Amino acid sequence: MTRDTAERPAGKPAAAVLEHAPARRIKDIPGRGAVAVWQGFVGSVLMMLGGFGVGWTTLDSPIIRLPFLAWLRTSVPMLILCITILAIGGILMVRAWLRLGQRVKDWQLVDRRVLYKVTVLWSLPLMFTFPLFSRDVYAYIGQGRLMVAGIDPYKNGISSLTGYFSFGADTLWTEAPTPYGPVFLWIEQAVVWITGGDFRSNGMLELAVFLFRVVTAAGVLLCAYYLSKLADHFRFNASRSLWLAVANPLFVINFVASVHNDALMLGFALGGIYLALTRRPILGIVLLTISIAIKPITLVALPFIGLIWAGKGASWGRRIACWTGSVAIAGGLLALMGWLNGFWFGWIPAMSTPGTLWIWYAPVGLVSVGLGYLIGFVNEPAGQVVSSVIRGVAQLAGLAVAVWFILRGKHEAILWRMAMAFTAVVLSAPMIQPWYVLWLMVFFTAAGIDEDWHVKVMYLLTVFFTVIALTDQLNFFGWLPGFNWMPQWGVHAVAITASVGFSLYIMFWDRKTKDLFDWRPHLRRTAKPVKSS
Question: What global pTM score does this model have?
């Protein structure tokens, strides 16, 4: 891959050079790529409108009592319409993203600022709808209330608060301690402080949600900035990197629509890696520590920054010294933060909360629960033990693989090794959320994605996990009289039918996109010739 710079060819007139200058406006994207951009915007608007009907809010919110929103949420036909346009909008964004990549055959012709504009354009409608596919933002609000009240969120769940059930948090978080670091606790506290903490007042709950969306949008901007800087460092094309990872609909949906703090975590992690690569390792460790203090999973990146600090061909003594220095700086900063908020390292035991969950498409979750269930027919306690043992062994194996990538491999492939270490950690967990996959997609894009089967894997992951997001958590008042004939599985069946049907169409029947999912050229290229007898 090459840099996104355009030099004037020798002997060419200025007019000819201008024809090949990088596009800086959406309408100037080559190959009618602007059409795909606006199709993605239409998809985002459809998702925004559908979110008014099935996005997450609370019964105590005065906003849903507005006549139009009340009509959307209490009418069966309007509910079905909202679910349908939400699913179609999400997959339309995926198709637009695929078509944009097809239209732009040479990413050197597109300035990175155009991809910034595309990301903003596709994100903007989703800033102004109810939270989609996740209630985590309401957990953030509850944890902020704990902080304002001076209650330790590492030892107490949201249920410690008066009237906690009125503000929308998932029941998982009502009892569980928060797994987030001190920096994000301060952000939660600041949002609650700004909004006054009285969420029964008109619009205050929605204002808190919007402020958290502003925080996640800042994370998206950080990711875009540092991913493009990393592309420059490795001489990749920054515009293509931004298209693959940040302008990706899965990225926009999970971080803007669903309001997950992982965007901010990733932004600081990428910043730390970039600074370390550009010979500012101490400042890089500071940024990575901020990332860890948002969500501690990025601890996995700390030893790799130590290796970058040590340099190519470093002796084991220097590597160990740099690892020790990295841990000392990060540990000292985290200890200082823990002393300032008075909760110290309470996030370490709290990190075990997500590990108690499982999901069917996580290999470890499926195997552990499946075998535990089968053995449980004969002996229920034995089944539970087997399930726990499988999870424990898998997580130890994932940690061992991550350590192997830390200790082994070429220095030139250090970001690829780091991405593989994160992959081992994610795949060894019994629970894999769609936004976990985004960590991997962003890190692999930073390391370099070839125009080969790597890109096809990105396509498949984007389609699959977008469908998972679109069909997972939908908010509707199923207890209303008009909904008696339509159980919850029926509501999800509508979302599954619309999203899976549209996805299958773009993968197998859409004449413009189906070739993107054709693996036959790669299979023929890697197939070994059969020896004649």
Answer: 0.89
